[in-house]
UniProtKB/TrEMBL annotation, chains A, B, C:
Belongs to the aspartate/ornithine carbamoyltransferase superfamily. ATCase family. Heterododecamer (2C3:3R2) of six catalytic PyrB chains organized as two trimers (C3), and six regulatory PyrI chains organized as three dimers (R2). Its EC number is 2.1.3.2. This is Aspartate carbamoyltransferase. GO terms for cellular component: cytosol. It comes from Pseudazoarcus pumilus. InterPro entries: Asp/Orn_carbamoyltranf_P-bd, Asp/Orn_carbamoylTrfase, Asp/Orn_carbamoylTrfase_sf, Asp_carbamoyltransf, Asp_carbamoyltransf_Asp/Orn-bd. The gene is pyrB.
């Protein structure tokens, strides 16, 4: 079976997951994003790439932050953007996900940016479009369940390439709640595809999933050991709703063991960069001094995120 | 008293209801909509018709679906669209409906798309504008109580004309909860005005209003009988909130008696079309095999709905 | 310490409060607004002043009405507008106000329109931007706690100047709940700066703050006395949530004593204008006959409000 993300010429048709996306496609997205970072610094931050196109932000799960990044990216490409908070809409009236999609297709949608609490929902929509021969409508996964958050993974790769240049010599560490993180899944897939030789996963046993094993991936339960000589530290967000759950003692205890402080970071290379997908829980995953410090590239990630989303959208519409 | 929907030259000033709208006006709207269906298939789906105009989606009752269709239509005409979910706004602060309208007029609104749970609210707004000499501001009823949903009725007429060509030889059946349906009221008015010789209303006695009698209208309580040799089957939506009410036994029982299945549809002409205003309750009003089948034109209705709304807005702004 | 609202050349950098804003700046805003009132009467109500700029409506407190006026003003200047209802967003996930701001800055925001229940929040954001050297990003206070609502104050000044021409001979009365009104604070500051020789504050003792004393300001507890020979009557809104509180007897009793009626208004000059920031509680603060009467300029305030907000935004972006 062909990769549903690619058309028959290997062009990007949907962006659903970074797992299985070829290295040349990943690299093409990062290359396309580069000039878009400059658009944002112009006096008039607009390009006519998606003029007259209708982009639907189809959010079955509320996320103002992610929705905003896609809305800005689409508007900078001159698209018409319609925000649909679908939890309050037709699905509440008993309409199925695919009926909702069919209706929006009938309104001549050009692109769906889909956020859904259920893993696989964007994939289901893409398959439905393919089955109906709708090659003119594109799906971007903006986060589905615990499965994937590919544009976050891409902006992370853009950030690493921007600061480190080359993937082939890097040691990259992911820290924290890997178990519940769709971001981590996308990051690991992309890092492996782009040729990072050593990926480390650091966290308490209760928050590390089984089945992570792959060549080049090492698991650590100790920060000092896991961060030793790494080039990149990728912190993960601890979901508030987990903080007082069975898997974790308290936020304070988590911070003591896994929160990134100057002391723990000193184990890494002196020019290591510190990343976080946001929003940060200061004093839980990360100390404020580090979050605002010289090694942090957390706000660069946000800036590159707009450019990467513009790149994905313009490639899909091409 | 003059029809408040028409200006002194007979041009469309407000669209409040299809009841009493002359046949030539209905036909003019359908004729205007036709080229707009082609706009949607262009590379750049935009026309400058409403450029610099402010369209307010004034939704006193939540309906993401309907709001979306008007938002897309207005944006394709290059209008600036402002969405106001008014239940959470000033009326909650005790401001009256007409004070809200006066305020928006003072902000130089050009058009109000009004959805309201109370029958007559858009009419009240239009009368207020007329009394104040504001002939430059236009009202479109996007559904008011049990009264009317004229753009839905118009897109239904567009769909019938598209597939059947001529109204003058048709037998059209409406099926289901006519009692609570503003859609049905608009459909019946338009079908009669456009010269459909036989309109059938099919449903349980508890869901058929009294006072339906008009020449050419026949009431049926049996599907096999009511659908016999019809050209068009217009299913109505059963509101979820009614399903377990006093007027109905259970969704299952409703489906058994009034749900459209292949067997029941076989009574209609073999080229009959099946319509539904959406969102559908599959397995309640309609069997999935019919909803997705060759006779269904349900998604065409949605597509034509954008064109019809563009037509109405452009005629009002002319 | 320099006024954070002004850049080193005295140009407007942020609009946070009217208190302390020089008279020439106030006058410049009113002068800039004048031509924008004409834009609204053109066929195409759009200017390219903010084309390609991203304006964020950052509403930490819900206010559809105020948000709408800024949204319209920004769209008429061709900006891309993103509405963020932040109570449902990242701050709910524990992200701090300034982290949210930093993230939006990283998305290349050009302007923040900030509404917040806490007095001083827009000031905090502006200080943060200044501390970070972000002179390219501008803050407009759209109402913070009990502190200030500067664009409301400005549109009120525009309205007075429009109808009365000259501030230097006027007697202006503010009536009602001054204690809880950010609008009153902004009005008093602007009236004083613009040279109004006599400002009267009229209301029950429980709703008048202490510390109002300044040259030219007089306090009254009787309407007949307070309104005698005034040129301008500025009614204040009585918040619903206060109406049955400890400070007030009942809405009926408030109306009897402080509600503006024809009888009470007759004490003012015969050409006095009546203003209200809206939304009005008819029959509480003001009689309907007055609200809709010949002396009321309440809807003019709304119209001028769009022009004033366009003026502020265009001066900030200049």
């Amino acid at each position: 079976m062909r990769n549903p993300q690619l058309d028959k010429n290997g062009g990007l048709r949907h962006l659903l997951t970074l797992d299985g996306l070829p290295r040349e496609t990943l690299t093409a997205i990062l290359d396309t994003a580069a000039p878009f970072t400059e658009v944002a610094e112009r006096e008039i931050k607009k390009l006519p790439v998606l003029r007259g196109k209708s982009v639907f932000n189809l959010f079955f799960e509320n996320s103002t932050r992610t929705r905003t990044t896609f809305e800005i990216a689409a508007k900078r490409l001159s698209a018409d953007v319609v925000n649909l908070n679908v939890s309050t809409s037709s699905t509440a009236k008993g309409e199925s996900l695919l009926d909702t999609v069919d209706n929006l297709c009938a309104m001549q949608a050009d692109m769906f940016v889909v956020r859904h609490a259920a893993s696989g929902a964007p994939f289901l929509i893409a398959q439905h479009l393919i089955a109906n021969g709708r090659n003119d409508i594109h799906v971007v996964n903006a986060g589905d369940g615990r499965h994937a958050h590919p544009t976050q993974g891409l902006l992370d790769m853009y950030t690493i390439r921007h600061f480190k240049g080359d993937f082939s010599q890097l040691v990259v560490a992911l820290v924290g709640d890997v178990l519940h993180s769709r971001v981590a899944r996308s990051q690991i897939a992309a890092l492996a595809t782009l040729g990072v030789p050593e990926i480390r996963v650091i966290g308490p046993k209760t928050l590390l999933p089984t089945g992570l094993e792959r060549p080049g991936l090492r698991v650590f339960h100790d920060m000092a050991e896991g961060l030793r000589d790494v080039d990149v530290v990728m912190m993960l967000r601890l979901q508030n709703e987990r903080m007082n759950g069975a898997l974790l003692p308290t936020p304070q205890e988590f911070y003591k063991n896994w929160g990134l402080t100057a002391e723990k970071l000193s184990a890494a290379k002196s020019d290591a960069i510190v990343m976080h997908p946001g929003p940060m829980n200061r004093g839980v995953e990360i100390d404020s001094a580090i979050a605002d410090g010289a090694q942090a590239v957390i706000l660069n990630q946000v800036t590159f995120g707009i450019a990467v989303r513009m790149a994905v959208m313009s490639m899909l519409a091409a």
